[in-house]
Amino acid sequence: MRERIKDIDRLQHIAECIDNINSYLQGYTLDSMIADKKCFHAESSQRSSRLA
């Protein structure tokens, strides 16, 4: 099991990354994400790496 995150800078970095991802995906629908091959493959590769 991972130990708890204690570093405030790391937590801020994680929050900034989440904001960036949300801004990148703003305006995308499921159909437009599937149609955009770069976005589709990036998301599916992230999903498969989380399952491993």
Give a short overview.
With 52 residues, the chain is an all-alpha fold. The chain is 75% helix and 0% strand.
Description:
This protein has 52 residues and is mainly alpha-helical. The protein has 3 helices and no strands. The two termini are 16 Å apart. The model has no long low-confidence stretch (mean pLDDT 76).
Per-chain topology:
Blueprint: H1 8-25, H2 30-35, H3 37-51
Shape: elongated
Mean pLDDT: 76
Class derived from helix and strand content:
mainly alpha
What is the count of β-strands? 0
Give the biggest beta sheet: none
Unreliable runs: none
Task: Please report which band the strand proportion falls in: under 5%, 5-15%, 15-25%, 25-35%, 35-45% or over 45%.
Answer: under 5%
Using only C-alpha atoms, the radius of gyration works out to: 14 Å
What is the CA-CA span between the terminal residues?
16 Å
Please provide the ordered H/E string of secondary-structure elements. Answer: HHH
Features:
3 helices, 52 residues, 0% strand
